[in-house]
Amino acid sequence: MFYVPPSLLVLALAATLQPSFAQQGEPAKPGEAEATREPAVETAGPADEAAKPAKKPEPGPELNYVLGARVHWQPEYAGSNRYSAGLTPIWAFQWGRWHFSASGGTTLLGFGKEVRGDGASTDLIRDSRFRLGVSLRIDTGRDSSKADTTAGLDDVKRTLRGRVYASYSITPDWLLSGALSQDLLGHEGGLIGVADLGWRLRQSPRSEFTAGVGLTAGNARYMGSYFGISPAASDRTGLPVYTPGTGLRDFHAGVGWTRQLSDHWIVFSGAGGNYLLGPAAASPLTEKRFGGQFSVGLAYRD
After folding, report:
1. Predicted TM-score of the model (pTM)
2. Basic and acidic residues: which segments have biased composition (predicted)?
3. Does pLDDT of 164 surpass 60?
């Protein structure tokens, strides 16, 4: 359906590392060149040099960070009717235009304004309304033995994902965003695409409420890894062989609330759900098409 070559993601990321060059001055207007030749420029003496104020060094990029944890309750696996609870650490660091985050920590740096996703990311283009960037992150894959729903299925190897993301502010409170995420190591992770429409209502300078809806799709390799059943897995589980193709994975919606308790401490919560579609819904692994999630957490932001 769609494929982003890994080389394109690497080249896009490399482009952000190119050194910038100083802009040249504007050319002199007619007549100005002659005027600047008279009188002759005098060489400044030691006294003049001493009188000049020392140049202040330009400030470097500012480092911002957030550290915290959240308690979550969610299905063991997309399509499972079994739920589990857990505690997940959250962190994010921002240095200039570079971001490093895990478990959605980057959203807390900007109170829900960021759409980068986890991993190491940088913006290639950014203005008041449009943003385009790239990121890299570790995808932990799937250890099928850790959930009853997936026991006996083939594991999905850990891999490195490259991601291209973009967003456009329709209004100050409405944000349209999308991303493509590709397995760069060929570990059967495939390609994932997502499109979202988000809405933000800032209730006060210290709190805000957010809501959003979106669609997720995957290519045949991704769908086969997470929703397919190989002949070997069929023999182990007794489930029929299933080879899904490219298509939509789910429709998802959610709401979130963030509250700044003090200059540094933040409490946050979220609730949402996803409804499986297409090849994911047709999989023999899918016990229930709808799954809900809830989380609440506390974080420290500098």
Report:
1. 0.74
2. 29-40, 49-59
3. yes
